[in-house]
Specification:
Blueprint (H helix, E strand, L loop, with lengths): L4 H4 L12 H4 L4 H8 L5 E4 L6 H10 L4 E6 L5 H10 L9 E6 L6 H5 L2 H5 L3 E7 L3 H4 L2 H4 L3 E4 L5 H18 L4 E3 L3 H8 L4 H14 L2 E2 L2 E4 L1 H7 L12 H15 L3 H14 L3 H15 L5 H16 L5 H13 L5 H14 L58 H14 L1
Parallel strand pairs: 1-4, 1-5, 2-3, 3-4, 6-8
Antiparallel strand pairs: 7-8
Length: 419
């Protein structure tokens, strides 16, 4: 069977690798490790198609160790034992370089089985994962490894790889192969920073090209079909989802409606309504809060409407909520107030509830006791001075009025009333 184009064009030297200049540029730490042949345990973390396997292959070429490959989605504990059994034998006299793909799928026992051999240097581990290793890889293994984060490759850096792939398939084509002028950049932009996706798109286009006038022509229309939605990275429950959710929340907080709509659109294209709805509801109280209290009710109505409509119509009320929150005045007084109050409770700063605030109890004689509670509605302005906090917390201030019109008006009202 012919090898896939992505494998045939895989770089063999560091200079051929596209992207990851923060790791592989001149003087970068990972590049120095590779050039000096350092036997270091490493964890490569980042999206698929960004060069993790390619770099592991280049490292393997520079070492004198026997290379073993395992994919954690299918490997078992017995597979690890079989590799360990080869250590020190003629199969692996210089030790083992183990490339373990998708390590997040290994359980604790499987990961721990490697520790002893990593410790004594008989196994050098290069593990890769598309999920945050600090959540999925056990601390004991991480403490023996260096984590390197791979990032999506920019379209300008993917473009040379696409052009090389096109030239390769042109040389293998039975008929003269041509492509529309903007095709290489279109593929580079639509792959979402995944070089492997770009290579697969080139291969599929070449295979599906229709002969015309004695030649094959790769068109933008076909590229649009091949690359449909591939520019978007989204894995429900994965890092990409949380990154988009974080970006949406911070765009709302930063009063940027255009950015907020962009990140909302990513969720809508992925078919995820729940995550953006939760972020919008949270932002209404966390970031707008008392500056525009009605925002919470309006956003709740928009979210309820979206959930009843479903996609695609749900995009309208959710976009309305996003624009409202992004353009509304901001106050985090609610967030800081409840945070300070909970911090006191966690520290044990509670104290007894003042007797006048307690529920009406009966004493040992069965008679209701006099508590001394002052009913505010019996007094002018529906307010009377009395202590509500426990004695230990008397005078503590959690809520501080924000500097927006709504909260300043409320502050002025109560200062006048309480004076």
């Amino acid at each position: 069977m012919d090898r896939p184009l992505a494998d045939r064009i895989r770089p063999q030297e560091l200079e051929q690798v596209v992207g990851q200049q923060h790791l592989l540029g001149q003087g970068a730490l990972l590049r120095r490790f590779i050039e000096k042949g350092t036997d270091a345990n490493m964890v490569f973390y980042g999206p698929s198609g960004t060069g993790k396997t390619t770099i592991a292959n280049i490292i393997a070429k520079r070492t004198h160790r026997t290379l073993y490959r395992l994919n954690a989605t299918t490997a078992s504990l017995q597979d690890i034992k079989d590799i360990i059994a080869d250590v020190g034998t003629l199969m692996a006299p210089g030790g083992v370089l183990l490339y373990l793909d998708e390590i997040q799928y290994f359980n604790k026992k499987q990961q721990q089985s490697l520790l002893e051999f990593m410790e004594n240097g008989s196994i050098t581990l290069i593990a890769s994962t598309t999920e945050n290793p600090y959540f999925y890889v056990y601390a004991a293994l991480l403490s023996r490894s260096t984590v390197f984060e791979f990032k999506p490759v920019a379209a300008s850096q993917v473009l040379p790889a696409v052009e090389r792939a096109l030239e390769l398939v042109r040389g293998e084509s039975p008929l003269p192969l041509e492509w529309e002028e903007d095709l290489p950049m279109y593929i580079a932009q639509s792959c979402g920073g995944d070089v492997r996706k770009a290579m697969n798109a080139v291969e599929l286009l070449a295979q599906a090209a229709q002969p015309a006038d004695g030649r094959l022509l790769l068109t933008l229309a076909d590229a649009g079909q091949v690359s449909q939605r591939s520019a978007m990275r989204y894995d429900k429950g994965g890092d990409a989802m949380y990154d988009i959710a974080s970006a949406l929340m911070k765009s709302l907080r930063g009063s940027d409606p255009d950015a907020a709509l962009h990140y909302l659109a990513r969720f809508l294209e992925a078919g995820d309504l729940i995550t953006p709805c939760r972020r919008l509801l949270c932002s209404a109280s966390e970031d707008v809060g008392m500056a525009y209290p009605q925002a919470a009710a309006i956003v709740k109505a928009c979210v309820d409407t979206a959930m009843q409509l479903g996609l695609p119509e749900a995009q309208l009320p959710l976009a309305q909520a996003a624009i409202l929150l992004a353009t509304a005045p901001k106050s985090n007084s609610v967030c800081t107030a409840i945070g300070a109050a909970r911090a006191d409770v966690r520290r044990g700063r509670t104290g007894a509830i003042p007797r006048e605030l307690q529920n009406v109890h009966a004493d040992t004689t069965g008679q209701e006791r006099e508590q001394g509670y002052l009913y505010p509605h019996d007094f002018p302005g529906h307010w009377v001075r009395q202590q509500y906090l426990p004695d230990e917390l008397a005078g503590t201030v959690y809520y501080r009025y924000g500097d927006n019109k709504t909260e300043q008006a409320a502050q002025a009202y109560w200062e006048k009333r309480k004076s």
